[in-house]
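User: Let's play a game. I give you a shape written as tokens, and you guess the letters that built it. Ready? Here's round one.
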């Protein structure tokens, strides 16, 4: 399987195939979207094409997304055998008030009681005692359900975007759609079903939505052991299935893409993303003397505050790394009232500290080996893209990318529950599409200006207290 891949990643892909589930795909079935409007149009089409199942996973669904809810209603009404599965975050979806996201889903539950299945994941980091102390919105700081999966039948779209108007219009993210992929779609659907086993179930009652906890053997805030066991067994099952499927020569020859799902759920001691990236950097370091080319990494995060583990990987490596972060104005919290309004400034502080660490690490001065930071800013837009692209050299398109829900920061590493994917390809056409994706993001990136910005003392104090929650 790995012989066709570029020498830069060949051994890494072979090693990863022994550790993570994998899915072989033909590049013609991989569609790289670039605009929020494309994401939304594709999402609606995925729903309209559904005949057996729709499975959507997001942080939340916006209360005012009438067109989306109507599309789901139309699909259910015209297809009597169709089931809808929603996996959302408990705290974000049950914010109090008349515009609580969960209220917009109530008509679907009432009209299709036995065919609509809504699961709300509650982070156990927030203890039962703290639940009565920490107010709404702030309780989301202890971790959320963060996987973004949008599929139906045998197709699936992976993104970092949530289901809210801004993500459909002027909030930049990444979007990869995989068509005619029953194995990958089954994996994503089964993953969501597994998580539903330690989530709340939403029921429709005359008084509104009600939350039901099915598992009487464990309390909602004590699910750590169960979640770790379920997710570990889930991945092991699919790993065995992947290894056994590699014997199919026909499938191997017809595919020029391989995809590896990686779960990151630090609170459950599931750290596949960390291990995968550590292995990638180790592999690149071991290949330095054997490669004629100098690999280049592009990295982006709308909430740039690398975990210490990821920062160390970059600082100790000789691989050139070009980073895009959101400018303060492109941060989703820019202009917010109260403490949340300080969040963009908190990320400026993280960026300042990162660049100081880069200088202290004395990275090589060669342009192909340095670490650069830019900021994304576009009038009237916010920035939410995240991921990694690896190219064999500065002049060649990517051969590998990491995409999905992870922001690559401390919160994603330790608090949120993430599902991301590593994709390697030998397809020249797909590689070029990934290169165009990078160029599209860099089109709105300017040199980092954080060094000129002042960070107030109260922001520094708050970051010192809750920095890992940013």
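Assistant: Ready! My guess for every position:
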């Amino acid at each position: 399987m790995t012989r066709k891949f570029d020498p830069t990643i060949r051994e890494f892909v072979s090693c990863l195939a022994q550790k993570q589930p994998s899915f072989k795909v033909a590049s013609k079935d991989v569609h790289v979207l670039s605009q929020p409007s494309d994401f939304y149009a594709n999402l609606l089409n995925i729903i309209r094409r559904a005949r057996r199942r729709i499975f959507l996973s997001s942080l939340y669904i916006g209360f005012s997304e009438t067109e989306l809810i109507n599309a789901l209603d139309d699909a259910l009404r015209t297809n009597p055998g169709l089931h809808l599965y929603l996996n959302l975050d408990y705290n974000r979806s049950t914010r109090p008030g008349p515009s609580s996201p969960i209220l917009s889903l109530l008509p679907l539950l009432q009209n299709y009681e036995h065919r609509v299945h809504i699961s709300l994941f509650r982070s156990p980091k927030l203890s039962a005692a703290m639940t009565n102390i920490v107010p709404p919105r702030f309780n989301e700081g202890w971790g959320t359900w963060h996987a973004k999966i949008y599929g139906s039948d045998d197709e699936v779209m992976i993104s970092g975007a949530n289901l809210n108007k801004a993500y459909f219009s002027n909030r930049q993210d990444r979007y990869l759609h995989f068509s005619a992929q029953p194995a990958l779609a089954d994996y994503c659907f089964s993953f969501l079903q597994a998580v539903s086993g330690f989530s709340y179930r939403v029921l429709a009652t005359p008084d509104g939505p009600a939350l039901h906890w099915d598992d009487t053997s464990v309390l909602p805030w004590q699910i750590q052991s169960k979640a770790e066991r379920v997710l570990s067994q889930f991945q092991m099952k699919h790993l065995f299935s992947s290894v056994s499927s590699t014997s199919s020569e026909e499938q191997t020859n017809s595919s020029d893409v391989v995809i590896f799902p990686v779960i990151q759920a630090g609170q459950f001691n599931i750290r596949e993303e960390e291990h995968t990236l550590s292995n990638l950097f180790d592999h690149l370091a071991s290949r330095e003397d054997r490669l004629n080319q100098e690999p280049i990494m592009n990295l982006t995060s709308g909430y740039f505050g690398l975990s210490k583990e990821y920062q160390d990987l970059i600082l100790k490596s000789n691989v050139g790394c070009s980073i895009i972060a959101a400018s303060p104005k492109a941060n989703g919290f820019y202009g917010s009232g109260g403490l949340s309004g300080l969040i963009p400034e908190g990320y400026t502080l993280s960026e300042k500290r990162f660049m100081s660490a880069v200088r202290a690490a004395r990275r090589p001065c060669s342009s192909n080996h340095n670490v650069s930071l830019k900021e994304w800013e576009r009038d009237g837009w916010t920035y939410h893209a995240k991921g990694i692209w690896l190219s064999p050299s500065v002049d060649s398109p990517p051969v590998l990318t990491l995409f999905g829900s992870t922001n690559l920061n401390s919160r994603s590493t330790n608090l949120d529950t993430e599902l991301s994917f590593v994709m390697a390809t030998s397809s020249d056409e797909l590689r070029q599409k990934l290169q165009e994706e990078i160029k599209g993001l860099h089109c709105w990136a300017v040199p980092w200006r954080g060094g000129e910005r002042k960070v107030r003392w109260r922001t520094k104090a708050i970051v010192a207290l809750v920095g890992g929650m940013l």
